[in-house]
Specification:
The chain has 53 residues and is an all-alpha fold. The chain has one domain (1-53). It is built from one helix and no strands. The protein has one helix spanning 17-30. It is globular, with a radius of gyration of 13 Å. The model has no long low-confidence stretch (mean pLDDT 80).
Length: 53
C-alpha cells in the first residue's frame, strides 16, 4: 500500500506477495505512475509491458 490507507492511497491485493505486487504495479500505472528500468543488464530491460490508455 502507498498512502495513509487504501481509500486515500493505492493498494495492491492478491493471494501471494507476487500477485499483490503485480496488482499494486497495475494500480500505480492506472494512476499515472510507472517505473522505468534503465540498467542495460537488468533482466527486465527491453521487456514490453501492456499500456493502459
Amino acid at each position: 500500500m502507498i498512502g495513509p490507507d487504501p481509500v486515500q492511497g493505492i493498494a495492491g491485493y492478491g493471494a501471494s506477495v507476487h500477485e499483490a505486487l503485480r496488482d499494486l504495479a497495475d494500480m500505480l500505472v492506472q494512476s499515472g505512475v510507472w517505473i522505468e528500468v534503465t540498467d542495460p543488464n537488468h533482466p527486465w530491460q527491453g521487456m514490453q509491458f501492456k499500456q493502459i490508455e
